[in-house]
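Practice record 12: protein with adenosine-5'-triphosphate.
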Amino acid sequence: MQRTYVNEIINKKEVFLQGWIYDIRELAKAKFILLRDNTGIIQCVIKNEAKGFEEKLTLESVISINGKVKQAKLTSSELTIKDYEIEVLNLELINKAETLPIQVYEKDKNIITDLSIRLDNRSLDLRKKRINAIFKIQHEISSSFREFFKNNNFIEIQTPSIISSASEGGTELFEVKYFEKKAYLAQSPQLYKQLCAISLEKVFTITPVWRAEKHNTIRHLNESRQMDIEVAFADDFEVMKYLEECVKFIVKNVINNCRNELEALNLKLKIPNYKYLSYEEAIKLCKLKFGDDFSPEDEKKLCSMFPDTIVFTHSWPSSIKPFYIFPKTMNKNEKLSKGFDALYGGIEISSGGQRVHIPEILIKQLKDKNLNPKNFESYVNSFRYGAPYHSGWSIGLERFTMTLLKLDNIREACLFPRDRDRLTP
Ligand code: ATP
Ligand code: MN
């Protein structure tokens, strides 16, 4: 018999279901189990005349059953099908689960399992409704990002993960042995996406990046995923507009396509508004001085002034933006740049800007940052053969998921987080 999913049982008489045991209640003459598959949870009744009744069932054991679909009036809030139950004719134990290290069915809301114990048992943790919901929504986020830029005639590119020198300076790199040479894990696809944009015009990528920052924070991972775009013949404000439209599209899709997941997370989302502030306006609001960067508290403060809004801060000083960000004007004493950040829900979700497409300016700005132009020779040379001006940005996938879903730790938004203390599972 062909497998039926839990959400497909209505209008069927007899079904073959496969899944996990979410809950068990054993009486003398019958057992009641809640069977969970990818699509929902349904109650099954196993009377003592059913084949397989004698099996010793445990929570999260994998089973298959043949049974009759019967009308019922059930009330448990865990059930996704409440008007029907399955009368089991035949039960087969496919794989018996041992005693669980963490609860999957969180019946007792007072038992709170430490995040680190949950992450030690991540595969099991993913079976929980709430956790499952986070990653279904993350899938909606990344696939909506892809869809948005595909619809806008961008092409998806794949950039290298092993690189010969730092893309940006600033963050620390993981060193890898590359035959006789030293190489590094990429901290960003930045330089490569630029090399693509000056020839392919409009590109995007979703790619892992590695940063060997030693500190453990609730907003940083040592391995994370970035959703990046780079656009030729576009300035900083044109790509901020893309960010606006793209985030609106993503949030709209999450609202429309992830109703059950949002309910499981007890969330109501709104399509965000947008606010543009120059760096100088923003530091006034935070009572900072020119040249200061925004602390996490400042980012929170700025966002609290504009609820449900993505706050762009633009025209940052070059001194606190990377070497590849274009100056605001060509004046010799220009201190400002075409770099920007986007803040959402109290936290930075994206940085971007117009890039330098002129080799002489690139070399000057590399030197200004105490970086050696020799290490960037092939990158700089690529701009000698007809490079259009171009701009782009990068949204951290886990960072965005965290802030959209109001999670209190970025590790909640990463399947298998890599941090200072964690390399398994
Ligand atoms: P922050 O100031 O928040 O540490 P950053 O300015 O160093 O971030 P960028 O180089 O601008 O980071 O990276 C682009 C985006 O990638 C960030 O806006 C953020 O969403 C995300 N991101 C950056 N670093 C991390 C990290 N260590 N872990 C997870 N996401 C990150
Ligand atoms: Mn940044």
